[in-house]
Amino acid sequence: MPWEKSFDEDQALDAAMRVFWEKGYDATSIADIVAVTGASRYGLYDLFGDKRALFLRVLDRYLDIVICGYLGDLLMEDASAETIRAYFENLISIADKPEIRFGCLMCSTAIELAAKDDLIRKKVHDYFDWLTSLFERALQNSVARKDIPASTKVRELALYLTGLVQGGAVFARSAVSSLTIATYFRTGLQVIFPT
Q1: For residue 82, what is the enclosing H or E element?
Q2: What is the pLDDT of residues 93-107, one digit of tens each?
Q3: HSE-up of 41 (CA within 13 Å, CB side)?
Q4: Does a structural domain hold residue 38?
Q5: Is 13 helix (H, G, I), strand (E, B) or coil?
């Protein structure tokens, strides 16, 4: 009789994502994944392959579900500098949520694995490039609308904003207060919105 999976693939990926996000790649065992998914070790291997293959799938799901969810209107073609401000204000408003306290899975992965795994490094770099491109488009739109000065160095500022996001993720992971995170983001945004 052929093997039939007895668990939902998306639910298994979501459960695995939470464990990897909280504990990191190296500290997460297949036994941890079995425990949270309810799947057998063999069922996981049959569906996803080894731990690394599962983690690569988790990174893709994290981008699709978590990151895209937080980006919101920044994904829109007409995003602007005000959209960027709203994005950071949303990050501030959710800074006390338990999963935010795990930081960013992509940022943690960059720190833990990017130096020793070429494919994971590429995924991390692709994410950073994509996020930077979203900020760049929003800033270009605002320059075109004359909402921010024409002299704005759009590419450099977009790279800075990507770094601002990742710095906030490290702060969140280190369990600093939500007030510290808010101060960090709002101070960083003064480059675009001087007070």
Answers
A1: helix 81-93
A2: 988 877 778 889 999
A3: 4
A4: yes
A5: helix
Mean pLDDT of 16-43: 90
Residue owning tokens 């893709």: 60
Please name the residue that has the structure tokens 């930081």.
103
* Average pLDDT of the chain, as a whole number: 91
At a CB cut-off of 8 Å and minimum separation 6, what does 161 contact?
Answer: 84, 132, 135, 188
Helix (H) or strand (E) holding 48: helix 41-48
Which CATH number is 142's domain given? 1.10.357.10
Domain count, the chain: 1
Is residue 17, in this structure, part of any structural domain at all? yes
Residue 117, amino acid = D
Global confidence as pTM: 0.90
Give the Cα separation of 187 and 48 in Å (integer).
43
pLDDT at res. 2? 41
Q: Closest Cα to residue 59, out of 22, 106, 24?
A: 106
**Any domain includes 131:** yes
- Structural domain including 106 reads 9-189
Give the pLDDT of residue 88.
Answer: 96
Which residue is associated with the tokens 């808010």? 182
**Is 1 within the bounds of a domain?**
no
